[in-house]
């Protein structure tokens, strides 16, 4: 069902500092910050040859990653995103198998302008999983 790894997301307390680490120290191509108000985050994508790294920080006090950074003040891996061809079919299959879809269960538009869903980390070995329709 899942396709390639689209990105690994890392929550960071200082987006500019984290972007500089990837650009200056590692020589990676770093994109511009983009606010994602529907998801309560500001993101920067770091391009690497075989995938992307998404650096994300809270956008506003009600950001869903605020609690994550409260527990992990230095930041850390927040989620992994996998591509799927049909997000509704993937959702329905996963729900039928007992996986919990976060939020309303309806896809929302993500940072790449494509439909996304998140799966409960307790159903995937403690890892939050994002599915993105390609």
Structure, described:
The structure is a single chain. The chain has helices spanning 15-25, 66-71, 87-96, and strands spanning 5-11, 29-30, 34-36, 41-48, 51-58, 76-84, 108-109, 115-119, 128-133. It has a single domain (5-133), classed as 2,3-Dihydroxybiphenyl 1,2-Dioxygenase, domain 1. The chain is α+β, with helices and mostly antiparallel strands. It is globular and about 45 Å long. Strands 1, 2, 3, 4, 5, 6, 7, 8 and 9 form a 9-stranded mixed beta sheet that branches.
The CATH architecture: Roll
| Overall CATH class | Alpha Beta
Question: Total domains, how many?
Answer: 1
Looking at the structure, what is the overall shape?
globular
CATH topology: 2,3-Dihydroxybiphenyl 1,2-Dioxygenase, domain 1
Q: Helix/strand/pairing class, anyone?
A: alpha+beta
Distance between the termini: 12 Å
List key phrases describing it.
3 helices, single chain, alpha+beta, 9-stranded mixed beta sheet, 134 residues, 2,3-Dihydroxybiphenyl 1,2-Dioxygenase, domain 1
Sum this structure up briefly.
This protein is an alpha+beta fold. It is 20% helix and 37% strand.
Summarize the helices and strands and which ones pair or pack.
Blueprint: E1 5-11, H1 15-25, E2 29-30, E3 34-36, E4 41-48, E5 51-58, H2 66-71, E6 76-84, H3 87-96, E7 108-109, E8 115-119, E9 128-133
Parallel strand pairs: 1-5, 6-9
Antiparallel strand pairs: 1-6, 2-4, 3-4, 4-5, 7-8, 8-9
């Amino acid at each position: 069902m899942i396709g390639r790894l689209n990105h690994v997301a890392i929550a960071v307390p200082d987006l500019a500092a984290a972007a500089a680490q990837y650009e200056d120290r590692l020589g990676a191509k770093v994109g511009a910050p983009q606010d994602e108000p529907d998801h309560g985050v500001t993101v920067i994508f770091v391009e690497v040859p075989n995938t992307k790294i998404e650096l994300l920080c809270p956008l506003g006090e009600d950001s869903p990653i605020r609690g994550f950074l409260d527990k992990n003040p230095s930041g850390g891996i927040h989620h992994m995103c996998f591509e799927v061809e049909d997000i509704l079919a993937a959702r329905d299959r996963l729900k039928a198998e007992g996986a919990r879809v976060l939020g309303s269960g309806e896809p929302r538009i993500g940072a790449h302008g494509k439909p996304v869903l998140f799966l409960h980390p307790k159903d995937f070995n403690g890892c939050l999983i994002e599915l993105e329709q390609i």
